[in-house]
Design a protein that fits this description.
about 240 residues; 4 strands; four-stranded parallel sheet
Amino acid sequence: MENEVNLVINWIKKYVKNSGAKGVVIGNSGGKDSAVVIGLCTKALGKDNVLAVALPCSSNLQDFEDAKLVVNTFGIKMLTVDITSTYTTLLSAIENGIGQNIPNFSSINIRPRLRMTTLYAIGQTKGYLVAGTGNLCESFVGYTTKWGDNASDFNPLAEFSVREVLEIGEIIGVPSKILKKSPNDGLGSGSDEDKLGVTYLQIEKYIKNGTCGNPEADLKIEKLHKQTEHKRNKIPVYNRVK
């Protein structure tokens, strides 16, 4: 894996250089994925060319403290943009406009979309690319917000499972506290695996072998994969008759 890490670092370095960008901006949740991407980008581009952005929205204070631990570890700057009031104002405006309350399963995705809007505004202003942080397991089952955390200019983790992301984190020096945290999207109670009903290890086994060894879990993973295919595909367009 150490050789793979070096290849990823070199890939980031070449991609950003070829793009003409001055650096990268990364949303810093205080979790393992964003921490690993921050570490990889810092090693590839240098401390002065990586900007982490904490985007609290009525977030857990511990997540913010963990986000600070990550940037202190890699010696980069962190900007904090609290989007709580923006979120509540937008939610209220939408509800007033349509004349009904927005249920949680609809409103929950507003926050990651506001975060990505913020990252792109900062990136465009500074001439930076937005680095993605989603991993292979999340993508496979669609555990991501369309036009939110699954939007980016490039993503160094897209082909790595959760287990592999943790291994990369250990190699590049991500604090063990961050790597040992229970994966949580910060958008509701319970861990990611609680919400999915399967573990990331089961998802990884399914991806590699077509089964995780648990028929019930296999059905859940297959269902999630099929239901969220639209998140992985390009936007359908009408093809004009020539």
